[in-house]
Amino acid sequence: MEIALVGIGKIAVDQHVPAIAASDEWSLAATVSRQGAVEGVTGYTNFDQMLAERPDIRVVSLCVPPGPRFDYAVAALRAGRHVMLEKPPGATLAECYQLEALARENRVALFATWHSREAAGVAQAKEWLIGKRLRRLSVTWREDVHRWHPGQAWIWEPAGMGVFDPGINALSIVTEILPDPIHLTSADLDIPSNCQTPIGARLNFYHPHGAEVTADFDWRQTGDQIWTIDVETDQGTLSLLNGGATVVIDGQQIDMAGTNTLSGEYPRLYRRMAELVRQGGVDVDLSPMIHVTDALALGRRTVVDPFFD
Ligand code: NAP
């Protein structure tokens, strides 16, 4: 299937282009980007022009930031194209509901992807938790924003979500592995004095059986980078390390030999998208985003030092 990639920035280059190239189901037929390009692939700078001139391209994958993504998605769905959305699926929940309705109306596939759910250890963690009573779950997602997001001004604007841009990846794992629904009860947000979005956030959640569920997201981490979820149950402990790539159960690291730990995330997403296109399916789970919008609604804000790229 021919596909167009829209927004040739960091994630498109790092993950989408290689995943498409390695797939025998997909062929990259065009890109749309104001500045980026992929060698050997027809490049457009105007999305509407690409949609009009290339009716043969039935699928588009949107890698632009969440702020501008809605307009691209609406144009594509109205033009009868199947659409794959990078995370987070939009700037607001209402936007995402509209996209879902539009996809159903136009009988095309819509996939709101959560790449971290495809990390190698996530399915195993989910299975391990079945039938166990949760006592505690804590997320620690601490990384250096200078290292992972250099020059990305959009993350500091209202739709950019700040530290929730990586934090929502952790929440996508938590909402996938926990058998019971949780909801946010309180949050503390650290907002740099010259920015609109948080550089740090600490979240507390309600759990129906009284378990303590918390998350600590921070972009000011130096040294070791931490993407960990620790779980304590009545029948032992589990840790997901390295963004979900590594599983430790009761202190024993599980051998993931033969599993393509993190590098398998995007190939798995594209395989799922191919299935959805064949079925005309809609796969939109907004639960990770609900927790972020709740944190932005309930969060107690503290102004902290200004941020300079
Ligand atoms: P990025 O490097 O800043 O790239 C964003 C791309 O979107 C650029 O190609 C940019 O310019 C295009 N774009 C179109 N309209 C834009 C606008 N109004 N403002 C800014 N850029 C605009 O960002 P990224 O890291 O690739 O992230 C894109 C999406 O992928 C985000 O939703 C992010 O959460 C998600 N993601 C990122 C990572 C990561 O490690 N960076 C990992 C997983 C998911 P052109 O028009 O020139 O193409």
Explain this structure.
There is one protein chain. With 309 residues, the chain is an alpha/beta fold. It has two domains: 2-112, Rossmann fold, CATH 3.40.50; 117-256 and 293-304, 2-Layer Sandwich (Dihydrodipicolinate Reductase, domain 2), CATH 3.30.360. Helix content is 32%, strand content 28%. The protein has nine helices and 16 strands. The protein has helices at 10-22, 47-53, 66-78, 93-105, 122-129, 145-148, 164-177, 265-279, 287-298, and strands at 2-6, 27-32, 42-44, 59-62, 82-85, 110-112, 134-142, 183-192, 200-206, 212-218, 226-233, 236-241, 246-249, 252-253, 282-283, 300-304. The chain has a nine-stranded mixed beta sheet with strand order 14-13-12-11-7-10-9-8-16. Strands 3-2-1-4-5-6-15 form a seven-stranded parallel beta sheet, with helices on both faces. A hairpin with a 5-residue loop joins strand 9 and strand 10 (212-218). Helix 3 (66-78) runs parallel beside helix 4 and helix 7 packs across helix 9. The structure holds NADP nicotinamide-adenine-dinucleotide phosphate (NAP). NADP nicotinamide-adenine-dinucleotide phosphate (NAP) binds next to helix 1 and helix 3.
Spatially, the strands of the biggest sheet line up as 14-13-12-11-7-10-9-8-16
CATH architecture of the largest domain: 2-Layer Sandwich
Count of spatially separate domains? 2
Rounded Rg: 19 Å
State the separation between the terminal residues, measured CA to CA. 39 Å
Q: What is the arithmetic mean of pLDDT?
A: 96
CATH class of the largest domain: Alpha Beta
Task: Count the beta strands.
Answer: 16
Global shape: globular
The hetero compounds bound to this protein are: NADP nicotinamide-adenine-dinucleotide phosphate
Order of helices and strands: EHEEHEHEHEHEHHEEEEEEEHEHE
Q: Figure out the total of helices.
A: 9
